[in-house]
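Bumping with the actual sequence this time:
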Amino acid sequence: MRYRRADVKGGTYFFTVNLADRRQTLLVDEFEILRLVINNVKKQHPFQLDAMVVLPEHLHAILTLPVDDNNFAKRWMLIKTGFSRQLLKQELINDSRKSKGERGIWQRRYWEHVIRDELDFERHVNYIHYNPVKHGYVKRAIDWPNSTIHEYIRKGILDKNWSYEESDNESEFGEIKL
């Protein structure tokens, strides 16, 4: 089955990528492996990493692809595969995954959204940086180590005391309230 995916060459995309077992903490436990794999994929298949946060069982990222390229699916496949290959096989693998030679580390799919404009970009960056607070891991976004917020602060884009007050309007954080 072929899934409908955005098809914008040179586009900027927001992603949510999850572990198959949401009770795991592999992404923070093995953060250095994930970081190295992402950097290796960037060398072979360039992209700009605009913002990212890595939580125990999922991550959010904004990537901008080269002007003549729309193949984010290949990049995520390489990142997920590269990360999985670095880990010992300890996860449960269901029959469907076994028959396809897959590991049981990642959810097969991920969520992507094409960034439409500067306001959309800003809201998604803020959502990414606030995510560890939203999930209750830290009280301040700056206290989460696996986030690009530190780069944003270093570059003077955000103040070190940046944070949001939680709002009833979830669209402030890049989500759509239905």
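The tokens above came from a reply further down the thread. Residues 118-134 form the longest helix (17 residues).
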